[in-house]
Amino acid sequence: MSELVFLLEEPSAKAMLESLLPRMLNAGVTFRCIPFEGKQDLEKQLMRKIRAYQNDQARFIVLRDQDSSPDCTLVKRKLLDLCQQSGKADRCMVRIACRELETFYLADLQAVEQALEITSLAQHQPSRKFRAPDHLGSPSKELKTLTKNRYEKVAGSRRIGRHLNLDNTRSPSFRNLIAAIRRMEGELLGANA
C-alpha cells in the first residue's frame, strides 16, 4: 500500500496535515499522522516506530519545530541519525518548522483570515515580519496576538490547514515541507507504476 507516514511532534501538526493533505495527495496515496507528546517523546520513540512499521512501501516524513534551538541543522541532523538507526533512512525525510508550526500560518494570513473568519488579517501580510515569518522568535504568540486570542492550537490548525496556499513561498520551512511531501508522493507513485 502506498502510504505516507508523518511522525509529528504534537497533535496540532496532525490537525493541520489532516486538513491539508486530502487537497494535495493523489488518490492512490494514503497517509497516517502519528503525533507524539513533544519533541523529547518524538526523539525517544522515533527510531523504534520507524523500524517496527509494517508497511514496506511506506515513506516517512518527520516534522518537528525548531523552537529555541539556535541551529536547525543540528536538530535535523539528530533526527536524521535516528532515522539512520531505524534501518530505513532511505525512506525518510526530516523537516523542521522554523521556530514553530504557526510560522506556516503567519506566512499565509489569507488562510488564517478565512479559517478563523476574521476580516482584514490578510492586509498585514506586506508587513516585514509577515513577509518572512521564519525569523520570528515566537510565532504562536504573534498569531494569538494578531487574532486577539481566537487562534487555538489544535482546532485552529485544523481549520487553517484547509485554506493554506500550497504554493506559498513566504516560509521556506513550509515550502520545504510541501516539496518533501510531493517528492515522497512521487516516489510512491513511481514504485507502483
Short description:
By secondary structure, the protein is of the alpha/beta class. Helices cover 50% and strands 13% of the residues. The longest helix has 20 residues, at 172-191.
Protein traits:
4-stranded parallel sheet, alpha/beta, about 190 residues, about 50% helix, globular, about 15% strand, single chain, 9 helices
What do you see in this structure?
With 193 residues, the protein is α/β, with parallel strands linked by helices. The protein is built from nine helices and four strands, in the order E-H-E-H-E-H-E-H-H-H-H-H-H. Strands 2-1-3-4 form a four-stranded parallel sheet, with helices on both faces. The protein is globular, with a radius of gyration of 16 Å. The chain starts with a strand and ends with a helix.
Architecture blueprint of SSEs:
Blueprint: E1 3-8, H1 11-24, E2 30-35, H2 39-52, E3 59-65, H3 72-86, E4 92-97, H4 102-106, H5 109-116, H6 128-131, H7 139-146, H8 153-161, H9 172-191
Parallel strand pairs: 1-2, 1-3, 3-4
Helix pairs in contact: 1-8, 2-3, 5-8
